[in-house]
Specification:
- This protein is an all-alpha fold.
- It has a single domain, classed as Helix Hairpins (Orthogonal Bundle).
- The protein has seven helices and two strands; from the N terminus they run αααααβαβα.
- The chain has a two-stranded antiparallel sheet with strand order 1-2.
- The chain is globular and about 65 Å long.
Length: 253
């Protein structure tokens, strides 16, 4: 009988010995974070460009694909992620190329479902990680940014379901604008980004105000989620760091 090699393979390592990785590739969480940051940085400028909508769709598709890679650690999760991302990508491009075929809110709803799935997988990975490393940190930051995009999609859905009706100018819309273009209108993509992250960080400048019960409820939930996320995430990272130091101290003795 042949003796087994003294070097353990990744499959033979115990869960506590394995490096904490969320996706199929070691740099998947970092790539996902870079994609998110790139999309957020480009958001204020793409609407003013001639081909801004195409660039925005390309960036969103890139983020969605990177999200699949970031959470597709097992075959089952990868298949489920692909099944959820396909409707989001197809709806996004159909809305861009043939906007008359799909309701405007459908692309936001499909993206909302997939983003919620990715957010759950990121949190599941963070709370099951045995130690703090770059993957855990990137997953934590990505999860926070993804919360803003998650609520952004929800605001676009709420705003898109209540379009401006010239025959009913006094009808209450979900959002009011006090600065800039104060005429009642549906939220643009960047306005939804802006309002979502301002609410997530509990800054609240007041230039965009939720009016309907649905919009106010979403804003309230996002503010509470942003605060709780930071508190729980920091406490979890501190706990992992302290546990790791205690284990190293025990091994040294």
């Amino acid at each position: 009988m042949f003796e087994s090699s003294p070097d353990k393979t990744a499959a033979a390592l115990s869960p506590d010995e394995r490096p904490a990785r969320i996706g199929n590739f070691r740099s998947s969480a970092a790539q996902f974070l870079i994609g998110l940051i790139l999309m957020l940085i480009a958001a204020p400028f793409v609407e003013e460009l001639k081909y801004g909508q195409i660039i925005d769709s390309v960036l969103m598709t890139l983020v969605l694909v990177l999200g699949v890679l970031a959470v597709g650690r097992s075959h089952r999760t990868l298949v489920l992620a692909v099944g959820l991302v396909l409707p989001a990508v197809v709806a996004r491009w159909l809305h861009h190329l043939h906007p008359e075929l799909l309701p405007p809110a459908l692309q936001s709803i499909s993206a909302l479902v997939f983003i919620g799935f990715v957010e759950f997988q990121l949190l599941h990975f963070i709370f099951r990680a045995p130690r703090v490393n770059s993957e855990v940190l990137c997953a934590g930051i990505s999860g926070y940014l993804l919360l803003g995009i998650l609520w952004m999609s929800a605001y676009l859905v709420v705003s898109g379901l209540h379009p401006v009706d010239p025959q009913q100018p006094d009808r209450l819309l979900p959002f009011a604008f006090t600065v800039g273009a104060t005429t009642p209108h549906v939220l643009s993509t960047f306005e939804a980004y802006y309002f979502s992250f301002i609410t997530l960080s509990t800054v609240g400048y007041g230039d965009i105000t939720p009016l309907s019960h649905t919009a106010r409820t979403l804003a309230m939930l996002e503010a509470m989620t942003g605060t709780l996320y930071m508190a729980v995430l920091i406490s979890r990272l501190v706990a992992l760091y302290c546990t790791e130091n205690q284990d190293e101290a025990g091994q040294s003795h």
